[in-house]
Amino acid sequence: MLEPKEFISDAIAKIKEEIGDEKTIIALSGGVDSSVCSVLTQEAIGDNLTAVFVNHGLLREGEAEQVCSVFEERLNFKYIDASDEFLSELAGVEDPEEKRKIIGRVFIEVFEREAQAVDAKYLVQGTIAPDWIETEGEIKTHHNMALPSGMVLKVVEPVRDLYKDEVRLVGTELGLPDSIVQRQPFPGPGLGVRVVGDLTRENLAVCRAADAIVREEVEKAGLDKELWQYFAVLTDTKVTGVKGDERDFGYLVIIRLISSIDAMTATVPEMPWEVIRTISKRITSEVSEVTHVALSISDKPPSTIEFC
Ligand code: XMP
Looking at this predicted complex, what is its ipTM? Predict the structure, then answer.
């Protein structure tokens, strides 16, 4: 890669040339790839870009507020709270693949409404090199995306030749905070792939609270730099416990701490036992619905990183 500064001026010039004066849209997730692409494109074409951040009700604790606070001032930014729409479509659905399909479909419906509202001609995507390199030859550099309504958007991919560590360097050079630049990968379907069974607001709140504790303790111990991902999963298994002097019957939460280079394979590294114990104790004492915490020790393969 060029030096980050050079890459940035080069990328901005290319985006300007490619898009010209047309209206453009990006789905901004708050992950480093889409964040870097949003800022590069805003610098290139100004408010002809609309950066849409969709809250599907499956975000982590504090995530919506954090993404809004970073980008509200910096971009032509649109926050859409579509959580009611997503969660009502997901109500009662337990099958993991079905959940993923619904989340993907509703996301496109929400996004398409926004693309139509601004009459977008271009779609910016945060594709990076590992996303296409293995299928090189099959993917054309310039491809379009047809939305279900028949609306066709031309796709622009400003960081498609970069690897994750290079995107991070560019993000830092653009002045993005570490909370975005160093953020652990978070899947598009969000907590939807980390709550086993029904995706109710109550279950999501339990997963979110446990996950916040995992993140806080891992980051406090400085282990976030070593791990690829670290999070909590809420299972639909209930386990007998005792809290105070009372019998309790609450949920089993699983802690997932993962080392990986590219998520194709992954291992569970040894972690300081004190950190694990603190996480476990905090979850059972602070999240009243949980009686039992387990540590996942399964690598990928045979397991996948996510649970659903
Ligand atoms: P798995 O569970 O397949 O996950 O081992 C591999 C990596 O991909 C992430 N992941 C997703 N990312 N949309 C995404 O944007 C998805 O549907 C999705 N499913 C899994 C996962 O977090 C891990 O980093």
Answer: 0.99
